[in-house]
Amino acid sequence: GKWNKHESAIKKKLNFDPSDDFILFSSVSKAGMDEAWDAILEKL
Q1: pLDDT digits 0-9 by tens, 1-44
Q2: Rounded-to-integer distance, Cα 15 and Cα 13, Å
Q3: Which domain range does residue 19 map to?
């Protein structure tokens, strides 16, 4: 739906490397917050 369209546009604009992590996050609903923190902590 809407998220897939945004994700595709962002990845295209940034010439996104598929081997990098990409996490959708909403500052309004906090959707994706746990996934974002997990990815950050994984890299530490």
Answers
A1: 778 898 999 999 999 999 999 998 889 999 999 999 999 999 99
A2: 6
A3: 2-43
- The residue with tokens 């990815």 is 39
Q: pTM of the full predicted structure? A: 0.64
| Beta carbons of 25 and 7 less than 8 angstroms apart | no
Number of domains into which the chain is organized:
1
Residue in the structure block whose two tokens are 């990845």: 11
What are phi and psi for residue 43, nearest 5 degrees?
-85, -10
Q: 24: closest CA among 34, 16, 15?
A: 34
